[in-house]
Amino acid sequence: MYSSYTIMFLLFICTWGAKADDPLGQFCNENSKISSGGKLSANIDKLLAELALKTPSTGFVATTYGKDQDKVYALAQCRGDVSTQDCNNCIQDATKQIRQRCPNQADARIWYDYCFLRYSDKSFFGEVDTSFGIFYFNVENVTDPEAFNKELGALMDHIRAQAVVPREKGLGKGKSVLSPFVTLYALVQCTRDLSDISCSQCLAVAVSNFPKFCSNRKGCRVLYSSCYVRYELYPFFFPLDSNNSGPSNTAKVMVYT
Ligand SMILES: *[C@@H]1O[C@H](CO)[C@@H](O)[C@H](O)[C@H]1NC(C)=O
Ligand SMILES: *[C@@H]1O[C@H](CO)[C@@H](O)[C@H](O)[C@H]1NC(C)=O
């Protein structure tokens, strides 16, 4: 899958202590440098204000601002299972943080668990983008990989099919009881600008990279610009199951292809 152009960084092992408004990651495209005082930059600010205002009520906004070479395209989306309040908090953080982290780029993206936001001076609506990915995986391994991978595969197939049913708006989630004490939880979310086929395609790429970064891991997250895929052995999606044992040690890998 990955060519010699792949650049990979193993960034850190984290437990907890990250601030609430810290994103899971961001991508500032260094080939899209802009001057901070320019028209394009002003248009980005206008667009971000609009996204901050409009996204929480619907969970999704894809819109443009400006004309000709100063036109900006932007998309903001919350995960389909999060509340309006959580969506609002996430989007407010995202609109602030993305400009601090990518102050001089026309193409910028920021990932959180509850939301995703990106903008660019080039149109990207409806296009599958898996060129840049962030992977988080649990550093612990499952004890019975064969049985686990079979259950994981079945659950992923199920929720991937769910995500492309139009009324689900790109969201699929479910759980699988592995034993009286162990339950597997999984969620997939495509950006809502994608067609069913494009959504399927993004999820297929994400799942096909499980063996590369998440083989036999107790948990894994794949963050792309077009879809989000996650599984854990603890509840993480809403409505939240009781007995939230919470995350353990997680490592992060960023991949450019
Ligand atoms: C999990 O498996 C990987 C790959 O086989 C190994 O490198 C790693 O050390 C294992 N993790 C633990 C916590 O045993
Ligand atoms: C949650 O944990 C309690 C005690 O640890 C247990 O009695 C209960 O069955 C658990 N519930 C679920 C849904 O696993």
From TrEMBL:
Positions of the Gnk2-homologous domain: 21-124, 130-236
Pfam families: Stress-antifung
One annotated Gene Ontology cellular component of this protein: extracellular region
Principal localisation: secreted
Record key words, sorted: Repeat, Secreted, Signal
InterPro entries: CRR_secretory_protein, GNK2, GNK2_sf
Superkingdom of the source species: Eukaryota
Subcellular location: Secreted
N-terminal signal peptide: 1-20
Family indicated by similarity: Belongs to the cysteine-rich repeat secretory protein family.
Name listed for the protein in its UniProt record: Gnk2-homologous domain-containing protein
